[in-house]
Amino acid sequence: MTVTDTPEKPTLTVMPVNPIDQKDKPMLVYIREEPVTLQCDTSNSFQGQMYSFYKDESEIQEKQTSQSLHVNVSGRLRSSNSVSYTCKVWKQGSNQGIESPPSEAVSLTIVDRPVTPTISVTPNYPVYIRDEPVTLQCSTSDFYKGQMFTFYKDEFEIKGKQTSEHLQIKASGSSTSSNSVSFTCTVWKRESNQEIESLPSEAVSLKLVDRPVTPTISVDPRHDVYVRNERVTLQCSTSYYRYENMKYSFYKGQSEIQGKQPSQSLDIVVSDSSAYSNSVSYTCTLSKRVSKREIESLPSEAVSLTIVDRPVAPTISFDPRHDVYVRNERVTLRCSTSYYWYKDTKYSFYKGQSVIQGKQPSQSLDIVVSDSSISYTCTVWKWVSKREIESLLSEAVSLTIVDRPVAPTISVDPRHDVYGRNERVTLRCYTSYRYEDKKYSFYKGQSEIQGKQPSQSLETVVSGISTYSNSVSYTCTVWQWVSKREIESLLSEALSLTIVVPVIVLVHSSSHHPRSEVPVNTLIHSTVVILVHSSSHCPHSKHQSLSWITVAVIVLVQKYQSLSSFTVPVIVLFHRTSHSLHSQYQSLSSFTVPVIALIHIPVIVLVHSSSHHPCSEVRQNPRSQYSRYPRSQ
């Protein structure tokens, strides 16, 4: 038999090498089932050389040409905490292989990994907005002393080991176009002075979507300044109409003032959290529905409103000022303010809720009061940043309105169909209402002839408004006290009196026929002249002369009675041979008076005769024959 040399004892090494110093003695610690490489080295090389490896003296691999072996670290038993490895080198002999002595054993300490954790995302949504902040949580069922956590995004470590099991991160993919991202985590424990990492958790995958396009916000109406507590409309607009079931949200500052609603407009009152703030900003967002989640856009650019306070409320007053007012009485409203620096100040007046005068430069307004249930207010306007701002309403003023006393009735005493000019009569004003401290006023036409007096009677002279008037009307009112104010009643119905003047008959005594003695220049149009002639010898008695006069008057009445409603000028003439008498009465030739009813006229007979005239006795009682006619004074 041929004798050959035995191979040298090889050297076994484990890679990677995880040495830990333990009381100045190196100790190799590995995680159970951790993959390692066993390397069997020898200083000699033989043809056909082979290697074999042993775990706890049990061969784990038949002879192989490779001097390396990949194994997972584990003990003979599942619960074993250590394992030793050896190796041998074989060389080919004449009939069989020759093995070397076993290498020095390499002992490994085995430790278990921490329990595999679980990872979760808060909040939990079916989809996530790109770059939306989320919180990752790595949870384990065991607690290890000094445990730490590591998080991974798409298998890349996000951050090193940390003590917190939470990590706040933005939901974004590995690239800006990624539509999904996955996260895992591990837990670490410290054992045998070595940090041991668990296996990765199952991945949690997030679906990513983009936000809707940022909308724009506007305000209607648009002004440079806004009045505090003014009502405006916010409008949220977007150029993208492809979103289904779009909804809108509005914000004042950082606070939501309307949640997601289908309407893209919102009516608001302009105000801020502080009564002294002079500006406020508003924003809006747009929401779209994706996978049962509403995705909100970024906030619009803010629209900022400058806030101003209304001018100080003015005061409103009435002129004249009374405790009560008569219905349909005219009064003047006056709107006053103590602020005089307002440029181009204007005023508005309100009756109840209705405007009765819009913006006008005048601070007064004439009105007719009619309803005591209505109150009046006013406002003042000032210019602020090219806008007219209306003040607060003045305090309302209300009027107590009363009706005028019932119209009285007026009568005359004595009562006739016609009255002579300047005839004296008594007017009486009567009311059936028992007013206290009543007073009376009398009017001729539109003119007052007696002011407020306690007496309800008035003596007056019948006369027209002018010399030629043939009628006159009288009215009266009654006054009563209401809340310290004397209120005049409605006018009574007018009392109309017909006025007539006397026809003056001039009796001329002359030896000549009177008609031949009438001056031609006294005969004018529509003239009624009564000339009564008496002979100088007076062959008849005085009664004949009077009879002649009577006949003349009767003839005149019969001739003109159809003109009872017609005005006839009458010129009164007197003529005598004596120039002195003619001169004395010639001024009467131009005296004219209207006559309405010739049938009811007083007659004045003027009789003139010479001293020798036998008919002079007629002058004793010239009107005795005409007592049936009304007489003037």
Can you put this structure into words, describing what you see?
This protein has 633 residues and is mainly beta. It has 3 helices and 50 strands. Strands 2, 3, 5, 6, 8, 9 and 10 form a 7-stranded mixed beta sheet that branches. The chain has 6 domains: 11-111, Immunoglobulin-like (Sandwich); 118-209, Immunoglobulins (Immunoglobulin-like, Sandwich), CATH 2.60.40; 216-308, Sandwich (Immunoglobulin-like); 315-402, Sandwich (Immunoglobulin-like), CATH 2.60.40; 409-499, Immunoglobulins (Immunoglobulin-like); 501-626, no CATH class. The N and C termini lie far apart (199 Å).
| Oligomeric state of this protein | single chain
Shape: rod-shaped
The total domain count is 6
Helix count?
Answer: 3
Q: What is the structural class? A: mainly beta
Helix content: under 10%
First-residue to last-residue Cα separation: 199 Å
Q: How many strands, which pairing sense, and closed or not: the largest β-sheet?
A: 7 strands, mixed
What average pLDDT do the residues reach?
A: 78
Tell me the radius of gyration. 66 Å
What fraction strand? over 45%
Detail the topology: elements first, then pairings:
Layout (H helix, E strand, L loop, with lengths): L10 E5 L3 E4 L2 E7 L3 E7 L8 E6 L2 E7 L3 E5 L9 E11 L4 E3 L6 E6 L6 E5 L5 E2 L2 E8 L8 E6 L2 E7 L3 E6 L8 E12 L2 E4 L6 E6 L6 E5 L5 E2 L3 E7 L9 E6 L2 E7 L3 E5 L9 E12 L2 E4 L6 E6 L6 E5 L5 E2 L2 E8 L9 E6 L2 E7 L3 E6 L5 E10 L2 E4 L6 E2 L2 E2 L6 E5 L4 E3 L3 E7 L8 E6 L2 E7 L3 E5 L9 E12 L2 E4 L6 E6 L2 E7 L4 H4 L13 E4 L7 H19 L18 H7 L17 E6 L25
Parallel strand pairs: 3-10, 12-19, 21-28, 30-38, 40-47, 48-49, 48-50
Antiparallel strand pairs: 1-4, 2-3, 4-7, 5-6, 5-8, 8-9, 8-10, 11-13, 13-16, 14-15, 14-17, 17-18, 17-19, 20-22, 22-25, 23-24, 23-26, 26-27, 26-28, 29-31, 31-34, 32-33, 32-35, 35-36, 35-37, 39-41, 41-44, 42-43, 42-45, 45-46, 45-47
